[in-house]
Here is the input.
Amino acid sequence: MKVKLILPALTEAKSPYWRPIKYALFPPLGLATLAGYLDENDDVDIQDEHVETLNLDDTPDLVGIQVYITSARRAYEIADHYRAKGAHVVLGGLHVTSLPEEAAAHADTVVLGPGEDTWPRFLADFRAGQPGKVYASTKRTLHGMPRPRRDLIKRRLYLAPNSIVVSRGCPHHCDFCYKDAFFKGGASFYTQTVDAALAEIARLPGRHLYFLDDHLFGNRRFAEALFDGMRGMGRLWQAAGTVQSILQPGVMEKAAACGLRSLFVGFETLNPQNLSEQHKVQNLNRDYSAAIRRLHDLGIMVNASFVFGMDGDDDSVFDRTVAWAIAQGIETATFHILTPYPGTPLFSRIEAQGRLLTRDWERYDTRHAVFEPAGMSVPALESGYWRAYRDFYRWGAIFTGAWTKDRLAGRLRHLAYAGGWKKFEPLWHWIIKAGGLTACLPVLERVLQGLQGQRSGLLLEENPASTTQKPRFEPEIARGTH
Here is the structure.
């Protein structure tokens, strides 16, 4: 059987603000995991449109497509193309799970929810000549899951090919997060066995790892056992966690001791009213400054996530948030416009209030205001978002943030990450076009290790493991999350 698995390009790639490095960070691990369920005699091809031109002239028997919300139009175009050629097309992921009827118009089969139980059931039915129209996830376990087909990943096209996922979902329930819509009907957070996770880590080449889990620290017992097992492996890694997990005694110490060097943290807002409204209770009554100090004291860099446009925000939120982040010495930050994704409580609330401005999914990229904000105008929200990026990454702001560090090595590290990542994007673009990402990584590692001594690691500002507003890859047909 000839099988093709496709990650269509997000439409953001066609905007004037496209940042090519963002889409060449991590390979489509979800597709590689789906490929692991196929027979060894199947002819399998994985194509990622962000880093290569799709070959649409082939004739596969089966096509599986990951669908993120802003890639939906492109995904449907590809699906229609292959259906016209006689292929059986499967669509799945967060957008499909939220809007199955929309997706079904372009697919022979839609898969709802995680793929660990749905994808094998579909494959068995397809091979028997009786594929169903809809497969909905009901069983939640990672036990017995096959290895991802990493041999099908074109490692040379990615800056950080050593991505890994050892859990699914998140134990928290924020109103703006896609997670609850995706995991409805079963557990919303579950993990591999520690032994399976350690075995997967051991198989990865090189030194650096990039955990793309929504919340690697979501199960403390699992996390601590994993970190204990990683001691002595010589790995350097990054992940995503919550303010709550940072402040728990003992956990971050274990993580730092086995190689954690940078953490994506969803601060989201400095306003407790906003946190309560969005049911992000895990951040309520937490000392953000103490969490940042704790990470920095352990030699862990901070990539902070902030969301603008919540009902408690007014025009002053942008300058206040940026000034606070700079003063805290945060190394890198990502900013987002609040986006009510279909299937989330936030979407239902905004729609019921008559504040939804568009259903053009291509604008649901966290860079456009798709609803009427309560405390400011749409132009003010969008211009404030861009101003936040500009002001946080001004050279003056970068130097100010760097000089919050007590030691020269910390200051140089801050300048290298904040400055090198944002200020030299034309160089990154050239490197990507020249196909030099993999060749550059060892050089970058040596430079950073020289700056940091033993506390070294490559921090990537856009971590797809965010539980907030960035898409990332997991072993389902599609994961695009808020």
Remarks:
- The chain has two domains: 2-136, 150-452.
- Residues 162 and 209 are 5 Å apart (CA to CA).
- The first strand starts at residue 2 and ends at 7.
- The mean pLDDT is 87.
